[in-house]
Amino acid sequence: MLPAYELPNRTRKWCSTLKWISVGLIVLMVADLIFAGVLGRIIQGHYLALSDIARDDVRFSNDKMRLLRILAFFAWAGATLILFAGFRLFNTLSGGEPFSTRVQRDIRFLGATILLNGIIGLFMRSAFTLALTYDNPPGKGELSIAISSSEISYLLVGGIILILGHIFLQAVRISDENRQIV
Questions:
Q1: For residue 69, which phi and psi values (nearest 5 degrees)?
Q2: H or E, element range at 50
Q3: Which end of the chain is more exposed for a tag (fewer CB within 10 A), N or C?
Q4: What is the pTM of this model?
């Protein structure tokens, strides 16, 4: 029988497998960024979401493209950061000791990255719309403010995981106290 503070081998193997899946997905996302033009697809998606009237007058200057690429990079980086946070947590848990300060730190980091991705998502649609149409003629500009269920989900899940990370910190402290008493 395992001590209460160690993960079973089966759980460790799952964490190790998920760790390598996370690494593979991060590699694919970076390769997509470098070789497949993911930023262009993100920009195109926001461009196509504009109304026909606003879209007809959009001109892509060098400065505008630079701004759009920066915005698209933030959108891409949010998802990649969540994968990295998952990798960190799975890597730590594959070591087998669930009650450590490193695990609670990784749980809080995962919660913070998910919450950050939700916050970025709240502003991203409006920022893209403004960036695409800021130099359109008067009356042809557009401002779009939308909140989707995915952003709300990111905010709720990220907040819950962040709070659970803080609760887990208390569990780690209690576990450390119990080890010192025995």
A1: -65, -40
A2: none
A3: N
A4: 0.85
Q: What is the pLDDT along the chain (182 residues), one digit of tens a residue?
A: 445 578 888 989 999 999 999 999 999 999 999 998 999 999 999 999 888 888 888 889 999 999 999 999 999 999 999 999 999 999 999 987 787 888 889 999 999 999 999 999 889 988 998 899 888 888 777 777 878 888 999 999 999 999 999 898 888 788 778 777 76
Q: Give DSSP secondary structure letters for 114-154.
A: HHHHHHHHHHHHHHHHHHHHTTSPTT---------HHHHHH
Q: Which residues contact 3 (CB under 8 A, 6 or more apart)?
A: none
d(CA 153, CA 4): 33
| Interaxial angle between packed helices 149-181 and 101-133, expressed in degrees from 0 to 180 and rounded to the nearest 10 | 160
The tokens of 30 are what? 């970076």
> How distant, in Å, are the alpha carbons of 85, 93, 122, 139, 167 from that of 47?
30, 42, 17, 18, 43
Tokens of 74: 């933030």
